[in-house]
Fold these 2 entries.
Entry 1:
Amino acid sequence: MRKIISVLTAAALLICVFSGCSLKKSDGETFIMPVSDTPESLDPQIATGEVEKLIIANCYEGLVRIASDGSIENGVASSYSVSSDGLKYTFKLRDNTKWHSLSGYDKVLGEDFEKTFDFSVKARDFVFALRRALNPQTGCKEASRLFAIKNARKINKGAVSPDLLGVTAVDDYTLEISLDYKDDDFLYNLTSAAAMPCNEAFWTATAGKYGLSVTYTLCNGPFYLAEWNDDQNVRMTRNSDYSGENEVKPYSVRLIVNNDFEDIKEKTLSGTYDVGFFTENELFGEDKSLITSSPFENTVCSLIFNCSDECFKLPELRKAVCMSSQVDTSTLPVNVSSLASGLVPPFCAYNGESYRVLAGKAKLTSFSEKNAAKNFEKGLKKLGADTVRFNVLCAAEYEETVRTLIQSWQKTLGIKLVASVDVRENEELLSLVKSGDFSVAFCPLEASEQEAENFLNSFSSKSGDNILNFSDKKYDKLISEAAESQSVTELLACENYLLEKAVVYPVFNQNSYFVTAADTRGIYFYSNSHNVFFINAEREK
């Protein structure tokens, strides 16, 4: 089980909102959360979007689940044991766990489905699900979280049959999972969408439509999918068939599609919405009397260089700018939480513990007039130019910080460097950066998930979210080797590689906030915004 190393780390890894007031004793309340879009598929082995994973986290239950304190607790499994070498997990399943039945299933299973279909959740449902997740034909995006299972990598590469996966249903309620190597994070990986059970008979009966509507979705979690409309509304209702260790307190949860940020903020701050995520800048100066907000330091505001730009594709010019950067702390925004200690935000963890504590300090670029000037002259020579001219994109709240940085560059590198500030709205700024239509930008790099490995992997050329426009085969190899070795030292080497190449220059950290309405308690999240759990949610009188 993971260790929580300090109160601050615990707050960063998991935030649960409590209140000392007494609560209603009723059949439960309905809670509302805004989301960015409606789901495309609620097939757990295929789902990729955050909204989809949010629904799956509440409507499905795996062998184990994440508790409100961030620990692992029993899910469908009533108990489990691990061999002394950490290579075999044995799960004893509850014999009263059911898939929730809906009247509309007659369209899928036939008119007599209540008599002919077995709604018990059994070990074979996990065998089928895990084989599906690792079968390359499924295209499961989270398959790598299960690579510790025996033969998983080979299966995912198409080298061997999924039948050879190290997962065995010993009997209806006993499941054995054998691993190729010890994975301290394995139980947490079993809480991912990819590891949710799948009933083969129901999946087959849907004829390729599994997870595409309420009728084609089979749930076994605290809630079931009760409503899924094209008019931007999803409703999850308390599952009367749920037999887990915890009581399901809410009656229902409504997910409402809303992409109007100002409207979302207004409704969250007024308590109309019960839960949301906001950055430091978005909440700064706002009236917070009707919400409870809990910070987690997941954003590193940084200079980033477009490595496809005519000038800044040259590492010498990137290094020259970084080495001539001096941060004037008096010009930093008032909502800065701390100066950057590396590229990876303090929020990130490795095997459940603080990545920064385990990995140690990153090799941040040091100020050096001599080395900055030397790299600058080399860069100009390669470029075949006498001067370098560029704009630095930034949002209004970072303008003063950027201006002082430019002054430090010009003081060190002289009149051959001509830079100016180009202030844009936040959304436009991020759009330009993502499209690669910039030379240099100062913007927030946000860790949307807790795992440090995932954050660093987002900068590989294979990632579809590579905001740096950085493509480097050596880095791709380093991050791949770090994932296979399960070594925090090798992960630190990946972080240092990006810093040494001057792809990015971290300046300071900022918080994001997990926000709930002041009259609620018990809603909690773990690791990222799609792991929001409503099972314990209650409302005050």
Entry 2:
Amino acid sequence: MKNFKKTLRDKPAMRWMMLVLVSTLMFATYWFQDFFSGLKGLMESEMGFTSEEFGRMIGLTTIANIFGMIIVGGIMLDKWGIRIAGIVFGGLATLGASITALAAYGFFGDEHSTQLTMMIIGRIMFGSGLEVVCVVATRTIVKWFKGYEFALAMAINMGFGRLGSAMGIALSIDIGGGSVPPAVAFAATLIGLALIVFLIYTVFDIKLDRQTNVGAELAEDEEFKFNDLIKLITNRSFLFIALLCVSFYAAVFPFIQYAPDLMVNKFGFTYDLPQGVDYFSLFGSVSLGNAAIFIGLFIFGIAFSMVPAQMKTFGKKLISVLVIFVFFVLFIGSLWGTLSVWLTNGPKTASLIPMGTILFTPIFGSYIDKKGKAASVMILGALLLIFAHISLSLFNSVILGYLGLLSLGIAFSLVPAAMWPSVAKIVKESRLGTAYATMFTIQNIGLLAFFWGIGKVLDMVNPSVIEAMDKARTMLESQGLSTSEVAEQIGLMKVAGEIPPYNYFWPIFMLVILGVISIFLALQLRLADAKQGYGLEKPFGNIED
């Protein structure tokens, strides 16, 4: 056995504390990425956004990344290191979020076209920082957890991101109090606070570098060459996993943006929670109570994956699982009055997608650490993706709708829990920043196409809805009503059936094709790995440095 001096990363408590600090930035950026999803109907009625304009604003978030911004960021990460890259691109995301919030308040002008343009500019700046922040977080986990609980740490980090998505989707309409600008301002403030937390992390990162003499190692490392990028994209295993990243995420992230509106229009769910219900509250606040429910679910997800893993015998593992399960059932039972109402609300129900990842991603990450089977897990995730979109497009059953959302949440846990640790087996550590950035760049092409495309197709197949909405808004504005009063009246007209619901069949059914492509690519990845020998089907724990 080799003698070695313990560093910060060799102390479990320190590793996990660093994970929490870095994951705070993931939580905040994912909140800002997805929170507009729960506001789509309100943006139509209050701000006059069409589905195409909503999709354009969300889709163009990725435009700079399509033209190589993430690759540039990944190269900068490999050259500058985690600290500088995190501060620079986290700051860019914060600035973009702030511009979006100011635009929502009409700071740059209250004309519709001006608000839309400036919100898009803010989202583009935010998106340029967002993806590199994700790469920074992933690269940080490799630095602190390689050789330890690697896949589990990756999964928990993604769980923090999904927690941000779930809470953003479900809670923004409550936080906004029936108005869009306050919800945008709150989301932008979260990113600023998270950036401050990241600055705290950098203090520990500097100490670790000094302990490991990483600065000297980086100085001796070969400079980045364009040929490194060519080697990446001509590696069959990396190419298939990158293309799988595109097809899978393009079928999930764009859907999340429209899911609350789909539940409202297809299944008759509500945007606002009904009055007169005794909701769970914390310190007298229902919004805090709702947030606490999501955090509670996240804690249970971590407990299911981490506590049994610490037990030495099978009997103790089984007992620990049963104990946690009993407490989980009691937790759900005590909140059933609130949760049962959530299941008739569009934003709250749609949050089942990232909520599923909160529960399952850490569990699947722990499984991959111990058992491997990463490529096979990705195939299973793609199958669940197809089932989910067929359930939500072809059928009008609310039960199938719930199952579809839950399946999508599980798929959204399986595939990322296997995909991102697999890249660290395929690519050497000194080029991981570039590798992850390349994947995010390719992924963003698909995201732009489907963020915008779903909205465009939705408008194309629902001309009567667009016409009725425009007539209603013109009539109400001519009566001198304020924007909030117009939004309220349009909402009432939708409930009364005076404005017809959107038909979501074609916009969602076209995502089934992406599921089929994902299965093909996952199969090809498994075949390529069998030839190249990266060991994606082998356990991920105890990786040797």
